[in-house]
Each structure stands twice: as C-alpha cells, then as structure tokens.
Amino acid sequence: MNRKEKMKITMDGLSQNEEFARVVTAVFASRLNPTVEELEDVKLAVSEAVTNAIIHGYPDGAGEVEVCAEAEITEAGERILTVTVHDTGIGIPDVEQAMEPAFTTAPKGERSGLGFLFMKAFMDHVAVDSKVGEGTTVTMTKQIGRQDK
Amino acid sequence: MQDTFIYEAKGQTLIIHMPKELDHHNCRDLRYETDLLMSECYITRIIFDFTKTDFMDSSGVGILLNRYKQMRLGGGRADYYGAGAQVTRVLKTAGIPALMSRYESKEEALYG
Ligand SMILES: Nc1ncnc2c1ncn2[C@@H]1O[C@H](COP(=O)(O)OP(=O)(O)O)[C@@H](O)[C@H]1O
Ligand SMILES: [Mg+2]
C-alpha cells in the first residue's frame, strides 16, 4: 500500500523561527519511525535551508518562508521523507558555485559556507531551484531506515 | 527566549559554555561578546564547552572557525570538550578535528 501524508507551514523569515521549523519538521518526520540520528540529520538540513532563506534570501528584512514536508511509505515498504524550503527572496545567481564547500557571500566573515555541504551530507538528495529576483526552493529527500547509512 | 553564552576566564584561557541549541539565532551575540572579552583580557586559548549542546548547525561551525582563526593569528589555540553525538558528527563533517583538539572533560581540556 502506498501512503503519503504531508504538511505545510508558512512563517515569517525571523531567526527565532529556525528552531521552530526544524522541530516541527522533526515531529512530522517521526511518523516514519526514524532513528534518533536520522531525526538529527533532518533537523540539521532543515535548519540550514531555513537559515539560508532568512539571512540570504531576505537580506533587507523579513519575507515569508514556507516549509513543506511529505512522508511516504512506498509499495515496497520504503520510508521516504521529502522536505521543501521555499522563499521568494533575492535568489541565487550561480547555484553550482553557491553549493561549493566554504563558499559564502556573507560579508562579516561569521559564516562557514558549509550549509549546502551539510544538507548534502545528511540527506540523500538535495535539489536547488532558484531564480534571481524571484526566490529559491530547496528540495531534500531522505530514505528512513536504510541500513547502509 | 534566547539561549545565552556563559563565559569563564581562567588566566589566559577563555571557556565558552555553549547553549543547548547552537544555530544562527543563538549565535548572534557571540562574536561581539568574545571580541569584547578578548580585548579586555589577554586570551591565548579558547575552550568551547559543548556539554549542554544538543544541536549545532553550520552557523555554529562558522563561529568556531572564526574564533579559531582569530586565536591562530595571535599564536593561540582553540579546543573543545563535551561534544555529544550530534555535535561530534557535525564537527567531523566540517573538518574541525584537524584544527582543534577534542577533550572529554573540562579538567582534561585545561590540564591535559
Ligand atoms: N535561499 C537563498 N537565497 C539566496 N541566496 C542563498 C540562499 N541559500 C543560499 N544562498 C547563497 O549560497 C551561499 C552558500 O550557502 P551555505 O552553503 O548555506 O553557506 P552560508 O550560509 O554559510 O553562506 C550563501 O552565502 C548565499 O550566497
Ligand atoms: Mg547557510
């Protein structure tokens, strides 16, 4: 039996919502029976994407950030979590460059440039869809309960 | 609502007790506060205490890396102790173990 459940939250792009977003997503993801470690991975990836939307997507102040998640159990019994983080901010001119480890456009030197690296390291798949002036959508998937991960 | 950092100076060593959730939101004051402390006291070593930290993301790593660079510029060093499972995995992924020494306790970090 193929089962899919989903959730969507829209919130102001304020830094205090970073924790809120990752906790809500983790609670939602827990219906797929993840291990503690898998839940930590999901929280980290959500934190990275939402923080990016807030600080890079909206450098001049707040806009809205949307977080969607989908929990799916496939015919074969695979448990798949998909998380999408969307902003309508400034967009990314060169996604490939943005995803390079240690690349950051933040001026004050307080950022590591490791956000995308972490998303890729802790989720199975990360896709970035971005248009300058229109915004950015990051889609991440993770199979829950995989033995080799 | 904000977790705060607690600072403890021991001679020329500054111990920074990190908050429970170390993300961009909770990192905002650290730079300013450590800069202030470092200009007032002659600090040659920073030790990060992760004992209470359940969660850290790349914003926390940015804080660590920048304090590390600051310390190295003056010939000092930066180390850490008390890292749990999540923090350990994040530090490893970021390559921090090659730069900073890991200790299990405050005593070990201070006295070797
Ligand atoms: N949602 C976004 N909107 C605009 N730019 C972004 C967004 N997400 C990431 N970026 C760009 O990609 C760069 C790299 O992101 P990341 O790897 O998370 O590192 P960091 O956040 O430390 O800069 C950012 O510095 C920024 O230029
Ligand atoms: Mg980032």
Folded structure, characterized:
By secondary structure, chain A is α+β, with helices and mostly antiparallel strands. Chain A has a single domain, classed as Histidine kinase-like ATPase, C-terminal domain (Heat Shock Protein 90, 2-Layer Sandwich). Chain A is 32% helix and 31% strand. The longest helix of chain A has 22 residues, at 36-57. Chain B has a single domain (6-111), classed as Transcription Regulator spoIIAA, CATH 3.30.750.24. Chain B has helices spanning 24-27, 30-40, 58-73, 85-93, 106-111; strands at residues 6-10, 13-17, 21-22, 45-49, 55-56, 77-81, 102-103. In chain B, strand 1 (6-10) and strand 2 (13-17) form a beta hairpin. Chain B is globular and about 30 Å long. The mean pLDDT of chain B is 92. Bound molecules: adenosine-5'-diphosphate and magnesium ion. Magnesium ion is lined by residues 48, 51-52, 115 of chain A.
What is the gist of this entry?
Chain A is of the alpha+beta class. Chain A is 32% helix and 31% strand.
CATH C-level label of chain A: Alpha Beta
- CATH architecture assignment name of chain A: 2-Layer Sandwich
CATH superfamily of chain B: STAS domain
Q: Numbering strands along the chain, what is their spatial order in the largest sheet of chain A?
A: 1-2-3-5-4
Poorly predicted runs of chain A:
none
User: What oligomeric assembly is this protein in?
Assistant: heterodimer
Tally of alpha and pi helices of chain A: 4
Shape of chain A: globular
Q: Which strand-content bin applies to the residues of chain B?
A: 15-25%
How many strands, what sense, and barrel or not for the largest sheet of chain B?
5 strands, mixed
Structural Rg of chain A: 15 Å
Which CATH class of chain B is shown? Answer: Alpha Beta
Please state the overall shape of chain B, judged from the principal axes of the Cα atoms: globular
CATH topology of chain A: Heat Shock Protein 90
SS class of chain A: alpha+beta
Helix content of chain B: 40-55%
Q: Strand-and-helix sequence of chain A, N→C?
A: EHHEEHHEE
